[in-house]
Amino acid sequence: MDDIDTGILRHLQEDARQSNRAIAQKMGIAPSTCLERIRLLRQRGVIRGYHAQVSLPALNRGVQAMVATQVRPLSRELVADFERSVSRLPEVLSVYTMAGSDDFLVHVTAPDIEHLHAFLLDRFTNRREILSFRTSIIYQHLTNPVLEPLPGRQGQSLSAT
């Protein structure tokens, strides 16, 4: 990744619908160069796709929560089954497999607190493998819309300055 690749990524993350010609003009490079750089970024797996950002409240998902979950007995098969089954639930946005005291962190949405409570009772309390879970309501969810490479190279440790 060089400065040109980083700049192209920044522009695509700001607005993935802008034309190749517009990005090339902003970067001061030829459209053919820009198109080839984008193709290589996709080929290397840096660009994994283009997505529409949607409003959760507009989809009747006004309440968000993180559900920290412990499962037992901890085994490769149980972890894979839990990840697969929970990630398919319509209320679930993300499933994170964790190290530490919790095995999973599940990001869920619901229309309101009553639906969230019913979801937890119906989908978590009746699963035999769940030892315990804790729910934290999310008041605000902010994300960094533009990510750039961090200093250092892949596979190398970052040096302190």
Structure in a nutshell:
The chain is an alpha+beta fold.
Topology:
Elements: H1 3-14, H2 20-27, H3 31-43, E1 63-71, H4 76-87, E2 92-97, E3 104-110, H5 113-123, E4 130-138
Antiparallel strand pairs: 1-3, 1-4, 2-3
Helix pairs in contact: 1-3, 2-3
Textual characterization of the structure:
- The chain is an alpha+beta fold and 161 residues long.
- It folds into two domains: 3-44, Winged helix-like DNA-binding domain superfamily/Winged helix DNA-binding domain (Arc Repressor Mutant, subunit A, Orthogonal Bundle), CATH 1.10.10; 56-138, Alpha-Beta Plaits, CATH 3.30.70.920.
- The chain contains five helices and four strands.
- Helix 1 packs across helix 3 (31-43) and helix 2 (20-27) packs across helix 3.
- The chain is elongated and about 60 Å long.
- It starts with a helix and ends in a 23-residue tail after the last strand.
- This is Lrp/AsnC family transcriptional regulator.
Characterize the biggest β-sheet: 4 strands, antiparallel
Would you tell me the structural class of the helices and strands?
Answer: alpha+beta
Per the CATH scheme, the topology name of the largest domain is Alpha-Beta Plaits
The side-by-side strand order for the widest beta sheet comes to 2-3-1-4
Q: Work out the helicity level.
A: 25-40%
InterPro entries: AsnC-type_HTH_dom (IPR000485), Dimeric_a/b-barrel (IPR011008), Tscrpt_reg_AsnC-like (IPR019888), Tscrpt_reg_AsnC/Lrp_C (IPR019887), WH-like_DNA-bd_sf (IPR036388), WH_DNA-bd_sf (IPR036390)
Domain HTH asnC-type: 1-62
GO molecular function: sequence-specific DNA binding
Keywords: DNA-binding, Transcription, Transcription regulation
